[in-house]
Design brief:
The chain is mostly beta strands. 10% of the residues lie in helices and 39% in strands. The strands form seven sheets. A four-stranded antiparallel beta sheet has the order 3-2-1-28. A four-stranded antiparallel beta sheet has the order 4-5-6-7, with no helix packed on it.
Amino acid sequence: MPAPRTRHLCSMAAALVLAVAGPATAASTASAAPAASGGLREVLFVGNNWDGTADVIESSGDFAKVGRIDVVPDRAQRMAEINADPVRWIYFQAIRNGVGEGHDQFADDMYSTPDGRSVVVSRPSFADVVSLDLATGRVNWRFAVSGYRADHMAVSPDGTRVAVSASTANTVHVLDIATGRQLGSFATGDKPHENIFTRDGKYIWNMSIGDVNTALDGPGWDWTKGDRHITVVDATTYKQVKVIDMRRRLDAFGLGDFSDAVRPAVFTPDESKLYFQVSFFNGFLEYDVAGDRITRLKTLPKNPATSEDRTTWVNDSRHHGLSMNPQGTKLCVAGTMDDYATVVDRATLQEGPAVPASKPYWATVSGDGKDCVVSESGADQVTAIDFATGRKVTSVPVGDHPQRVRLGHVQAGWPGPNGG
């Protein structure tokens, strides 16, 4: 039977709903990397999940490579621990053969510290978060998450706290970014995924996606995927403020066959609208935060070459990756299984040209706000698309299976421990 969903706080006032709204991607990206000063250089970090590296590239312009980081310098030690623990070894193999598509997952998400001296990385296969010294490549601190897999992260607007999803423990940990000390944690739905701090840093939104690795992918089996909802907590006390059960909102909009697993999401600059992707769908939805309802649906073109067999889609995704320009006028969508990315006008929901891309897995905003940057996990490159024209700007080669791309800082003149 479906898991009970009794925590929806339907009586909350509209003012409270507005207070806990999420930020625009452009705003949260900027907050993840406080304004450069005193010898800092703005860059983009590209996590190469399968080979355990992160490429550092220019944040705009030609997106030229700056350096590369080994995010698993302690690999031998971690593997010795896993091989000595039968339960951990089973989970390690399950991650490799399930979510990892036959590969280990070593670099899921990453954020630099405000001083540009370290980068914090979540490593799914090692079920941990580490801080790496950008000058030496050494581990500053390591935090083992609850359960057996670490996932998406978010950083507070002031850059001092990082939230990480512990996907097998239905928990989010919030850590001091400088020391790795846990400041708090909170419970979520099944398989917590994306995290977003609000613009003022007072609230954290978490989206749980349930079991995305089972073969029960037909709409009639959706209830087997688990309890999926958005959890909003106070970012000081880590107490639950609101739970949003998107199942009810989808049903009310006439989308009873849609999955309620909220994947990448982005908020408008005024924090009034949420745009989000769901499992199996080629497009996205618009949610009015104050009205607590879905208001619009955008269906994007299918690629005729994409199989309609849902079990062949990676981790229940059809489209996975969403960002918004700083003005809040354009959305950028990664059409993961359909092998393209496109820019959509937010007012009209009219899409621009389909830019060919090989399994694009994420979308973010360039440092100057002019371009959308998508990670092409199938081609081992990142591609920049002009928000204004919807046309491709450039592609830059990176490591094996790039996924998350995050804006951050390094020290001026930094070549990286592994060179440029």
